[in-house]
Amino acid sequence: MVMAGVAGLLLGAAFVAALPAGAQAPQEIPLVIEKNRFQPDVIKVKAGAPFVLVITNKDKGPEEFESKDLRIEKIIPGGKTVRLKMPALKAGKYPFVGEYHSETAKATIVAE
Predict the structure, then answer these.
(1) Whole-number pLDDT of residue 22
(2) Which residues touch 96 (CB under 8 Å, ≥6 apart)?
(3) CA of 76: how far to CAs of 5, 56, 59, 71, 90, in Å?
(4) What is d(CA 64, CA 105) in angstroms, rounded to the nearest whole number?
(5) What phi and psi, each to the nearest 5 degrees, are found at residue 13?
(6) What is the dihedral angle through the alpha carbons of 10, 85, 109, 36, rounded to the nearest 10 degrees?
(7) pTM for the whole thing?
(8) Which residues contact 45 (CB under 8 A, 6 or more apart)?
């Protein structure tokens, strides 16, 4: 019983030590691929703050998240969810497409 309490205390201390003082986990923003389109097609984020895109592909086939401005390419398998850590962005617009369906899968990240 005492060992479990000590182990829990050490685990909690390790978790707190992993985050810098005052640090918050990056904001998570959901993004869905469905019928070869991104939803939402405009994502607003805070400029200068990293974030995580949580991309869920509801289609059966894979899609590739591609942004030339951000230099990111990531395949999202059909029926799967992928977490994509994004860097802090300067204010501006960053378009991206689904490379496999670039005619319909278009969206933009707006950093403000």
Answers:
(1) 62
(2) 38, 65, 66, 67, 70, 72, 106, 107, 108, 109
(3) 41, 8, 10, 16, 26
(4) 10
(5) -65, -40
(6) -120
(7) 0.77
(8) 27, 29, 51, 86, 89, 109, 110, 111, 112
